[in-house]
Amino acid sequence: MAAKSTKLSCTLSIVEKTGLNKQGKDILKKFTLGKIAMDAADQDVYDVVKAVGDILAYPVNEIQKVDNSVITNA
Q1: For residue 36, how far is the Cα from the chain centroid?
Q2: What is the 3-state secondary structure (H, E, C) of the chain?
Q3: Spatial CA neighbour of 39 closest among 3, 5, 71, 9
Q4: Number of structural domains found in the chain
Q5: Count of other CB atoms within 10 angstroms of residue 63
Q6: 24-30 long-range CB contacts below 8 Å, 24 or more apart?
Q7: Is 35 left (phi over 0), alpha (psi -120 to 50) or beta?
Q8: What domain range is 51 assigned to?
Q9: Of 10, 22, 44, 53, which residue is least crowded by CB atoms under 10 Å?
């Protein structure tokens, strides 16, 4: 039998670049938003984060959409 994946939830993490450390490496701050619509299109998520990014204190460095699933043997 083939394994089957069932999506349980979706979260969104936004990583901001807040500066540089003494070695010149990026200092990153990550915050996570839960309960994102499981059927949200990647482009829609990207567009929303880019729009929100305009009002954040620091520039958006990375957008992470995390889908949580359970895998069962169907």
Answers
A1: 10
A2: CCEEEEEEEEEEEEEEEEEECCCCCEEEEEEEECCCCCCCCHHHHHHHHHHHHCCCCCCEEEEEEEEEEEEEEC
A3: 9
A4: 1
A5: 16
A6: 26/61, 28/61, 28/62, 29/58
A7: left
A8: 3-73
A9: 22
63 forms beta bridges with: 14
pLDDT given for residue 69 in this prediction: 94
Q: Whole-angstrom Cα distance, residue 47 to residue 53?
A: 10
Candidates 32, 27, 39; CA nearest to 64 is 32
Indicate whether this model's pTM tops 0.85: no
What does the pLDDT look like over 16-61, one tens digit per residue?
999 999 999 999 999 999 889 999 999 999 999 999 999 999 999 9
